[in-house]
């Protein structure tokens, strides 16, 4: 399984217009971290550590960055982002188009399950190519 660098946007992705955390955020963050992925949080309006602390998500987050709003790849260096995102979750499509990931709706119904779908997509991407036939695990693989 691949270990992925996962970048979450904050406003209208994790924290909705009413200040409430999107459903399933805590369990999905915990699951991603326990699976060995690395979670980063970035935002176009600044470093959002305090917001993640307030919602008890900071312990799962490796680091925080300012998100480039244009020239996304070129500006990673400008904003001192040390890794290239493998999977981004954002309500702005341009960011998802630039790096790949999940374009999440910017509004959430009370029974919103978008982050569970995000988790499923990440698991799918991480295991892509991991084809294990029955009994294969017992066979030594030569380089
Ligand atoms: Mg946003």
CATH topology name:
Rossmann fold
Radius of gyration: 16 Å
- What is the string of SSEs from the N terminus onward? EHEHEHEHEH
Bound molecules: magnesium ion
Structural class: alpha/beta
Strand order in space, largest sheet: 3-2-1-4-5
Please provide a written account of the structure.
The chain is α/β, with parallel strands linked by helices and 143 residues long. It has one domain: HAD superfamily/HAD-like (Rossmann fold, 3-Layer(aba) Sandwich). The protein has five helices and five strands. Strand 2, helix 2 and strand 3 (61-66) form a beta-alpha-beta unit. The mean pLDDT is 92.
In short:
It is built from five helices and five strands.
Topology:
Layout: E1 5-8, H1 25-35, E2 38-43, H2 49-54, E3 61-66, H3 75-78, E4 87-90, H4 93-99, E5 101-103, H5 114-127
Parallel strand pairs: 1-2, 1-4, 2-3, 4-5
What attributes does this structure have?
globular; single chain; 5 helices; 143 residues; alpha/beta; binds magnesium ion; 5-stranded parallel β-sheet; Rossmann fold
């Amino acid at each position: 399984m691949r270990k992925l660098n996962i970048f979450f946007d904050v406003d209208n992705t994790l924290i909705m217009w009413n200040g409430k955390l999107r459903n399933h955020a805590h369990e999905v963050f915990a699951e991603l971290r326990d699976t060995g992925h690395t979670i980063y949080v970035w935002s176009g309006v600044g470093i959002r550590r305090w917001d993640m602390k307030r919602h008890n998500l900071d312990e799962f987050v490796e680091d925080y960055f300012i998100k480039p709003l244009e020239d996304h790849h070129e500006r990673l260096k400008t904003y001192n982002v040390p890794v290239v995102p493998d999977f981004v979750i954002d309500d702005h499509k341009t960011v998802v188009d630039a790096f790949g990931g999940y374009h999440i709706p910017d509004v959430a119904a009370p029974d919103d399950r978008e982050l569970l779908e995000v988790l499923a997509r990440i698991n799918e991407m991480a295991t892509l190519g991991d084809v294990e036939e029955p009994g294969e695990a017992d066979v030594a693989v030569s380089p």
